[in-house]
Amino acid sequence: DAGITQSPRHKVTETGTPVTLRCHQTENHRYMYWYRQDPGHGLRLIHYSYGVKDTDKGEVSDGYSVSRSKTEDFLLTLESATSSQTSVYFCAISWAEGTDTQYFGPGTRLTVL
Amino acid sequence: GDSVTQMEGPVTLSEEAFLTINCTYTATGYPSLFWYVQYPGEGLQLLLKATKADDKGSNKGFEATYRKETTSFHLEKGSVQVSDSAVYFCALSDGTDKLIFGTGTRLQVFP
Question: Percentage helix, strand, coil, to 5, in chain B?
Protein backbone atom coordinates (compact mmCIF):
# COMPACT_ATOMS: atom_id res chain seq x y z
CA ASP A 1 0.00 0.00 0.00
CA ALA A 2 1.70 3.18 -1.22
CA GLY A 3 -0.49 5.50 0.85
CA ILE A 4 -2.39 7.13 -2.00
CA THR A 5 -6.02 8.12 -1.74
CA GLN A 6 -8.27 9.70 -4.33
CA SER A 7 -11.49 11.58 -3.75
CA PRO A 8 -14.19 11.31 -4.68
CA ARG A 9 -14.18 7.69 -5.83
CA HIS A 10 -17.26 8.18 -7.96
CA LYS A 11 -18.86 11.32 -9.34
CA VAL A 12 -21.67 12.11 -11.73
CA THR A 13 -21.91 15.66 -13.00
CA GLU A 14 -23.47 17.64 -15.80
CA THR A 15 -21.87 19.16 -18.87
CA GLY A 16 -20.48 22.62 -18.22
CA THR A 17 -19.94 22.26 -14.48
CA PRO A 18 -16.51 22.53 -12.85
CA VAL A 19 -15.09 19.40 -11.22
CA THR A 20 -12.06 18.95 -8.99
CA LEU A 21 -10.49 15.60 -8.22
CA ARG A 22 -8.05 15.21 -5.36
CA CYS A 23 -5.06 12.96 -4.95
CA HIS A 24 -3.48 12.72 -1.51
CA GLN A 25 -0.28 10.85 -0.61
CA THR A 26 1.34 10.15 2.72
CA GLU A 27 4.71 8.99 1.35
CA ASN A 28 6.36 12.35 0.63
CA HIS A 29 7.04 11.32 -2.98
CA ARG A 30 8.29 14.14 -5.17
CA TYR A 31 6.57 13.15 -8.43
CA MET A 32 2.80 12.95 -8.92
CA TYR A 33 0.84 12.16 -12.06
CA TRP A 34 -2.74 12.24 -13.34
CA TYR A 35 -3.83 9.69 -15.96
CA ARG A 36 -7.11 8.88 -17.60
CA GLN A 37 -8.07 5.34 -18.59
CA ASP A 38 -10.35 4.72 -21.54
CA PRO A 39 -11.17 1.51 -23.45
CA GLY A 40 -8.82 1.01 -26.36
CA HIS A 41 -6.39 3.67 -25.14
CA GLY A 42 -4.82 2.25 -22.02
CA LEU A 43 -3.64 4.99 -19.68
CA ARG A 44 -2.80 8.42 -21.00
CA LEU A 45 -0.95 11.09 -19.05
CA ILE A 46 -2.88 14.32 -18.43
CA HIS A 47 -0.53 16.37 -16.24
CA TYR A 48 2.28 15.70 -13.84
CA SER A 49 4.18 17.45 -11.07
CA TYR A 50 7.81 17.25 -10.05
CA GLY A 51 7.47 19.35 -6.94
CA VAL A 52 5.35 21.93 -5.16
CA LYS A 53 4.08 24.44 -7.73
CA ASP A 54 6.04 22.67 -10.49
CA THR A 55 3.75 21.07 -13.04
CA ASP A 56 3.82 20.19 -16.71
CA LYS A 57 1.47 18.96 -19.42
CA GLY A 58 1.09 15.42 -20.56
CA GLU A 59 -0.30 13.85 -23.70
CA VAL A 60 -3.96 14.81 -23.19
CA SER A 61 -3.94 18.04 -21.17
CA ASP A 62 -6.55 20.07 -23.08
CA GLY A 63 -9.52 20.92 -20.86
CA TYR A 64 -7.66 20.09 -17.63
CA SER A 65 -5.64 22.11 -15.14
CA VAL A 66 -3.72 21.05 -12.05
CA SER A 67 -2.36 22.55 -8.87
CA ARG A 68 0.08 21.39 -6.24
CA SER A 69 0.40 23.74 -3.28
CA LYS A 70 1.58 21.02 -0.87
CA THR A 71 3.76 17.96 -1.41
CA GLU A 72 0.98 15.62 -0.40
CA ASP A 73 -1.87 16.97 -2.56
CA PHE A 74 -2.27 17.11 -6.34
CA LEU A 75 -5.56 18.48 -7.66
CA LEU A 76 -7.01 17.94 -11.12
CA THR A 77 -9.65 20.41 -12.29
CA LEU A 78 -12.02 20.19 -15.20
CA GLU A 79 -13.00 23.84 -15.64
CA SER A 80 -16.11 23.03 -17.67
CA ALA A 81 -16.75 19.31 -17.90
CA THR A 82 -17.68 17.72 -21.24
CA SER A 83 -19.02 14.25 -22.04
CA SER A 84 -15.66 13.35 -23.63
CA GLN A 85 -14.12 13.65 -20.17
CA THR A 86 -16.17 10.75 -18.87
CA SER A 87 -13.44 8.36 -17.81
CA VAL A 88 -11.64 6.71 -14.94
CA TYR A 89 -8.93 8.95 -13.52
CA PHE A 90 -5.87 7.58 -11.77
CA CYS A 91 -3.30 9.38 -9.70
CA ALA A 92 0.22 7.97 -9.41
CA ILE A 93 3.34 8.85 -7.45
CA SER A 94 7.03 8.06 -7.71
CA TRP A 95 10.23 8.94 -5.90
CA ALA A 96 12.17 9.88 -9.00
CA GLU A 97 11.68 10.34 -12.69
CA GLY A 98 12.05 7.81 -15.41
CA THR A 99 12.95 4.32 -14.39
CA ASP A 100 11.46 4.35 -10.92
CA THR A 101 8.23 2.54 -10.20
CA GLN A 102 4.98 4.49 -10.19
CA TYR A 103 2.42 3.63 -7.52
CA PHE A 104 -1.21 4.11 -8.41
CA GLY A 105 -4.24 5.22 -6.45
CA PRO A 106 -7.59 3.39 -6.56
CA GLY A 107 -9.08 5.65 -9.24
CA THR A 108 -12.04 8.01 -9.60
CA ARG A 109 -14.87 7.13 -11.95
CA LEU A 110 -16.26 10.36 -13.45
CA THR A 111 -19.42 10.46 -15.53
CA VAL A 112 -20.35 13.67 -17.34
CA LEU A 113 -23.95 13.71 -18.51
CA GLY B 1 7.61 8.89 -30.72
CA ASP B 2 7.96 5.98 -28.34
CA SER B 3 5.09 3.50 -28.24
CA VAL B 4 3.98 0.14 -26.86
CA THR B 5 1.87 -2.44 -28.68
CA GLN B 6 0.10 -5.27 -26.90
CA MET B 7 -1.90 -8.17 -28.21
CA GLU B 8 -5.62 -7.57 -28.12
CA GLY B 9 -7.75 -9.51 -25.70
CA PRO B 10 -9.51 -10.95 -24.10
CA VAL B 11 -7.26 -13.92 -23.56
CA THR B 12 -9.36 -16.79 -22.26
CA LEU B 13 -7.67 -19.76 -20.60
CA SER B 14 -8.49 -22.69 -18.39
CA GLU B 15 -6.86 -22.93 -14.99
CA GLU B 16 -3.30 -24.33 -15.10
CA ALA B 17 -2.83 -23.38 -18.77
CA PHE B 18 0.31 -21.62 -20.02
CA LEU B 19 0.02 -17.87 -20.56
CA THR B 20 1.76 -15.60 -23.02
CA ILE B 21 0.81 -11.96 -23.54
CA ASN B 22 2.81 -10.31 -26.29
CA CYS B 23 4.28 -6.84 -25.96
CA THR B 24 6.52 -5.01 -28.41
CA TYR B 25 7.86 -1.52 -28.20
CA THR B 26 9.31 1.28 -30.28
CA ALA B 27 11.84 3.56 -28.64
CA THR B 28 14.76 5.68 -29.78
CA GLY B 29 16.85 5.14 -26.65
CA TYR B 30 17.23 2.38 -24.08
CA PRO B 31 13.95 2.26 -22.19
CA SER B 32 13.03 0.48 -19.01
CA LEU B 33 10.12 -1.91 -19.44
CA PHE B 34 7.29 -2.72 -17.06
CA TRP B 35 4.26 -4.95 -16.67
CA TYR B 36 1.44 -3.61 -14.53
CA VAL B 37 -1.68 -5.53 -13.49
CA GLN B 38 -5.13 -4.14 -12.74
CA TYR B 39 -7.56 -6.31 -10.79
CA PRO B 40 -11.27 -5.51 -11.09
CA GLY B 41 -12.19 -2.23 -9.42
CA GLU B 42 -8.63 -1.41 -8.42
CA GLY B 43 -5.72 0.75 -9.54
CA LEU B 44 -2.65 -0.54 -11.32
CA GLN B 45 0.05 -2.47 -9.47
CA LEU B 46 3.58 -3.08 -10.66
CA LEU B 47 3.97 -6.76 -11.55
CA LEU B 48 7.57 -6.77 -12.77
CA LYS B 49 10.15 -4.66 -14.54
CA ALA B 50 13.45 -4.84 -16.42
CA THR B 51 15.85 -1.97 -16.90
CA LYS B 52 18.30 -3.27 -19.54
CA ALA B 53 18.59 -5.75 -22.36
CA ASP B 54 18.49 -9.45 -21.41
CA ASP B 55 17.20 -8.67 -17.90
CA LYS B 56 14.43 -10.97 -16.73
CA GLY B 57 11.78 -9.59 -14.43
CA SER B 58 9.78 -12.04 -12.33
CA ASN B 59 7.08 -11.94 -9.67
CA LYS B 60 4.23 -14.22 -8.51
CA GLY B 61 5.16 -16.84 -11.13
CA PHE B 62 5.10 -14.31 -13.98
CA GLU B 63 8.22 -13.66 -16.05
CA ALA B 64 9.25 -11.35 -18.87
CA THR B 65 12.61 -10.97 -20.60
CA TYR B 66 13.82 -7.71 -22.14
CA ARG B 67 14.69 -8.62 -25.74
CA LYS B 68 16.40 -5.73 -27.47
CA GLU B 69 16.93 -7.60 -30.74
CA THR B 70 13.18 -8.17 -31.16
CA THR B 71 12.08 -5.08 -29.16
CA SER B 72 9.82 -7.29 -27.08
CA PHE B 73 8.87 -7.88 -23.45
CA HIS B 74 6.40 -10.76 -23.53
CA LEU B 75 4.70 -11.78 -20.29
CA GLU B 76 4.57 -15.51 -19.45
CA LYS B 77 3.28 -17.73 -16.68
CA GLY B 78 3.51 -21.48 -16.62
CA SER B 79 0.23 -22.24 -14.87
CA VAL B 80 -2.46 -19.59 -14.48
CA GLN B 81 -5.05 -19.47 -11.72
CA VAL B 82 -8.53 -18.01 -11.60
CA SER B 83 -7.12 -15.29 -9.34
CA ASP B 84 -4.86 -14.11 -12.19
CA SER B 85 -7.90 -12.80 -14.06
CA ALA B 86 -7.16 -9.11 -14.58
CA VAL B 87 -6.05 -6.56 -17.16
CA TYR B 88 -2.33 -6.52 -17.89
CA PHE B 89 -0.54 -3.40 -19.17
CA CYS B 90 2.89 -3.26 -20.75
CA ALA B 91 4.68 0.07 -20.36
CA LEU B 92 7.99 1.75 -21.06
CA SER B 93 9.94 4.61 -19.60
CA ASP B 94 12.64 6.35 -21.59
CA GLY B 95 14.23 7.90 -18.52
CA THR B 96 12.11 11.04 -18.49
CA ASP B 97 9.19 11.70 -16.19
CA LYS B 98 6.63 9.67 -18.04
CA LEU B 99 5.43 6.12 -18.60
CA ILE B 100 3.97 5.12 -21.95
CA PHE B 101 1.35 2.39 -21.68
CA GLY B 102 -0.01 -0.17 -24.08
CA THR B 103 -3.78 -0.51 -24.41
CA GLY B 104 -4.00 -3.41 -21.98
CA THR B 105 -4.88 -7.09 -22.38
CA ARG B 106 -7.72 -8.64 -20.41
CA LEU B 107 -7.05 -12.15 -19.11
CA GLN B 108 -9.94 -14.39 -18.12
CA VAL B 109 -9.16 -17.69 -16.42
CA PHE B 110 -11.91 -20.27 -15.95
CA PRO B 111 -11.87 -23.19 -13.53
Answer: 5, 55, 45
Of A57, A82, A58, A77, which Cα lies nearest the Cα of A66? Answer: A77
In sequence order, the 6+-apart residues with CB closer than 8 A to the CB of B66 are B33, B50, B51, B52, B53, B54, B55, B56, B57, B73
In angstroms, what separates the C-alpha of B110 from chain A's closest C-alpha? 23
CA distance B104 to B86: 10
Share of chain B above pLDDT 70, in %: 99
Nearest to A33 by CA among B47, B70, B91: B91
* Nearest-Cα residue of chain B relative to residue A6: B43
pLDDT, residue A100, reads: 67
Are B26 and B71 in contact by the 8 Å Cβ rule? The answer is yes
Instruction: Check B96 against A31: CB less than 8 A apart.
Output: no
B34-47, pLDDT tens digit by residue? 999 999 888 899 99
Q: Number of residue pairs across A and B with CB atoms under 8 Å?
A: 53
- Res. A30 pLDDT band, cuts 50 70 90: confident
Which ranges of A1-113 does DSSP label H, i.e. alpha helix? none
